[in-house]
Design brief:
By secondary structure, the chain is of the alpha/beta class. It has helices at residues 5-8, 21-32, 50-60, 86-95, 118-129, 149-152, 165-178, 185-194, 199-210, 218-225, 230-241, 245-257, 262-278, 286-296, 305-320, 338-344, 385-398, 400-406, 425-431, 434-448, 460-465, 483-491, and strands spanning 39-43, 75-79, 106-111, 135-141, 156-159, 362-363, 410-414, 417-422, 453-458, 496-497. The protein has 4 domains: 5-159, Rossmann fold, CATH 3.40.50.300; 165-225, Helicase, Ruva Protein, domain 3, CATH 1.10.8; 230-320, Zinc Finger, Delta Prime, domain 3 (Up-down Bundle), CATH 1.20.272; 338-497, 2-Layer Sandwich (GMP Synthetase, Chain A, domain 3).
Length: 498
């Protein structure tokens, strides 16, 4: 079994450490002047050399040659994630008083120290306050904010910085040359970028991609790592800038078909927008771009990242676009009934009376009604645009992500069946999931008392030929469809008493 590259090329001397010269210089001076502290705290992101420098320092302070294959009795490494309880720290406190076996100092390296419990920290604090002269503690953490101030104040703190892309590329190039890996500079830069400031992650990626054999190009790196091609990202940003929602959906669909994760695409878009803002090459208003970046940060944590990403990218376009696009959901044209013709002529403020069976009297209220009550003998096909808007309103309140897809559909009610006509396969596929359709079916049943079946289809001609009106949900809440008017417009209402 071959040795992993990140272990094979791990630095063995302080002078070999890359990218943390501000720390290695200070430690080397301390060693030369024999001014060794009793406790050190190394903080910073993962994969930047905290543990490596801790091990090197532990050996150099004892004038030992660093060899990973040799475990020295006086250099003890503790993983705080698995030894976080007070019992382990109490055991440590008892052992620190034992003299080193052969070295000058007994060095304790506690990795991920932020994982210790509160009680364990209190126990460790007593040792840090009055440590034996032969003991050195080196604490390492990626989350220094979780450490008590009393611990931090009793250590010499060194903050590690993320690896820069340029210095990472130089380091990777040295390793690639030693391993005889033929790789382009642009491919190395992409690996360094994807490593996100971690030398270890970047070297691991090089190790993974190097196994592909042959010349490593940027295309190979993109395919191996599941990274969206730069050209496609540029097209996506261009579609956002020029207000082309159809292109945005098509491009996201293409990325999805290639197996790319929405969370990864969101991270790349953040970097792309940031770079364009810095280089002043972005056609979007900087404020809009900043808001977009803020929303994109939320995508990886979403329960449905792909849908969330689509909604985020479409929102600024739909808000400003004047081109013909699929608008929020409305119902398809249905034959006008005698009832609807009569209702069009009614004055809104006059009492409305319908022939028997005479409905109960209702008091007019300004409170919005969240449901639509339908008589037992009513048909689902009687639902009109206002009723659909009321369903969407409830869906938005309960399942905002699902609402974002439903509003893109053109609904058609017939008998006890609801057909949602989408313009793009992307929407149809997302909504056609049994969990999503079940949510809508249950919601309609709660509001109407009717069991319906939901079918999702793609018909660009029908979706495009339907001329939807702007959704009332996109307007001010005060201008939304009045629930009582909705009921009356469908079934004929009772008297409205002022």
């Amino acid at each position: 079994m071959g040795e992993a590259l990140y272990r094979k090329y791990r630095s063995k001397r302080l002078a070999d450490i890359v990218g943390q010269e501000h720390i290695t210089t200070a430690l080397q001076n301390a060693l030369e002047n024999d001014r060794i502290g009793h406790a050190y705290l190394f903080t910073g992101p993962r994969g930047v050399g905290k543990t490596s420098i801790a091990r090197i320092l532990a050996h150099e302070v004892n004038q030992l040659l660093y060899d990973e294959t040799v475990n020295h009795l006086d250099i003890i490494e503790i993983d705080a994630a698995s030894n976080r309880r007070i019992d382990e720290i109490r055991t440590l406190r008892e052992r620190v008083h034992n003299a080193p076996t052969s070295a000058k100092y007994k060095v304790y390296i506690i990795d991920e120290v932020h994982m210790l419990t509160k009680e364990a920290f209190n126990a460790l604090l007593k040792t840090l306050e009055e440590p034996p002269s032969h003991v050195i503690f080196i604490l390492a953490t990626t989350e220094v904010h979780k450490l008590p101030e009393t611990i931090i104040s009793r250590t010499q703190r060194y903050t590690f910085k993320p690896a820069g892309i340029h210095e990472t590329v130089i380091h990777l190039k040295t390793i690639a040359k030693a391993e005889k890996i033929d790789i382009d500079d642009e491919a190395l830069k992409l690996i360094a970028t994807h490593g996100r400031g971690s030398f270890r992650d970047s070297i691991s990626l090089l190790d993974q991609i190097g196994n592909a054999g042959g010349k490593i190009t940027i295309d190979k790196v993109e395919r191996s790592l599941g990274i969206a091609p730069e050209a496609l990202l540029d097209e996506l940003v261009s579609s956002i800038s020029h207000g082309k929602p159809a292109d945005i959906i098509a491009q996201l669909d293409s990325l999805n078909q290639q197996g790319l994760q929405a969370a990864q695409v969101a991270r790349q878009l953040i970097q792309k927008l940031r770079d364009k803002i810095l280089n002043e090459k972005l056609d979007i208003n900087p404020v809009t771009a900043a808001e977009l970046i803020q929303k994109l940060i939320e995508v990886p944590a979403s329960h449905d990242p792909l849908t969330r990403l689509e909604i985020i990218l479409l929102e600024p376009v739909l808000a400003n676009s004047t081109v013909s696009i699929p608008k929020p959901a409305t119902v398809a044209e249905v034959p006008k009934t005698k009832i609807s013709n009569e209702l069009d002529s009614l004055e809104p403020d006059k009492p409305v009376v319908k022939s028997p069976p005479k409905p109960q009297k209702m008091e007019k209220t300004k409170e919005p009604v969240t449901g639509i009550e339908i008589p037992v003998n009513a048909k689902i096909s009687d639902l009109n645009e206002s009723a659909w808007q009321q369903i969407l309103l409830t869906l938005k309140q309960k399942h905002n992500t699902l609402y974002g897809i439903a509003r893109m559909a053109v609904p058609m009610f017939e008998e006890d069946k609801l057909t949602l006509i989408f313009n793009f396969p992307f929407h149809q596929k997302r909504f056609n999931d049994s969990k999503n359709t079940k949510i809508l079916v249950n919601l309609i049943k709660d509001q109407t008392g009717k069991n319906v079946t939901v079918e999702c289809i793609v018909d660009k001609q029908k979706a495009s030929n339907t001329s939807p009106k702007p959704s009332s949900l996109d307007q001010d809440d005060n201008k939304a469809t009045k629930p009582l008017d909705t009921i009356n417009s469908i079934f004929g209402g009772g008297e409205i008493i002022e």
